[in-house]
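# step 3/5: fold
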Amino acid sequence: LCHRMLGNPEEAEDATQETFIRAYAKNWARDRTTFHRSNVEGMRNVFHAAAEHAVERVVWTSTIATFGPTPRGVVGDESMPRITARYFTEYERTKAIAEKEAFRWAAAGFPVVVVNPTRVYGPGHLTEANSVTRIIDAYDRGKFPFLFNRGINVGNYVLVDDVVQGHLLAMEKGRVGQRYILGGENATLKQLFRTIDRVSGKRHFQIATLTAGPLIFAWFQQMRAKWFGTYPSITPAWVRTYAVDSAYRSDKAARELGYRSTPLEEGIRITYQWLQRVRAQAQPAGRWM
């Protein structure tokens, strides 16, 4: 795997031997145009370079966020239209723009397949792009006990290994101009926390809150970032994404690609065991955990 700044046409040119394209996956940036440069202009740069080099197929990584929230009790799929014109984050908005453009390229004959991962978790760098794993880690250490909107909202959680396999299957079997949801198991935040409790053998403290409290805290975090140049640990947009339902299924990927997902409890166990190893390696010699 290679890392390229896709907003730079020269680097995008170098990336034409790689056919899997991700993007700028953050919830906040001081310069909001960063999202458009990476997610939209960067995609165009790679598509142009791929077309010039007659690349046989491109798998472009979108996000489940482009589908938007789901109505209460409804489990969506690729055929479900977006029920709101509102986008919670600049990342979400620019990915939606890019996805529409990708389909225009496909309609013109460009060999692109789109995949839409849901909320990804699992072993990997604990960056903002791995935010669910950061929540698992923080909750297990007693630093994130909050159940936004009382933890009743549903999200779909998928193990990173399944997403990787889904990309490979999309490259091999995906139909050009189609998109495939790469998801796992639907669960509320409360169910996610209970699963972590079962796997860890601990009973962690939880605080069920309405959305207003976390939103106020996130607003102050965002203002501090703007005033003092710090990076916000949480943003209002991020809180709102966890205060709506986002329940989806991956039947199309299973049927057409042979995609399979890992049950949530098994995936959390894999992630928790990895976190324990990471903590042990980071622990200074002679110091107790």
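# step 4/5: annotate
Confidence is low (pLDDT under 50) at residues 1-7, 285-289.
# step 5/5: archive (pending)
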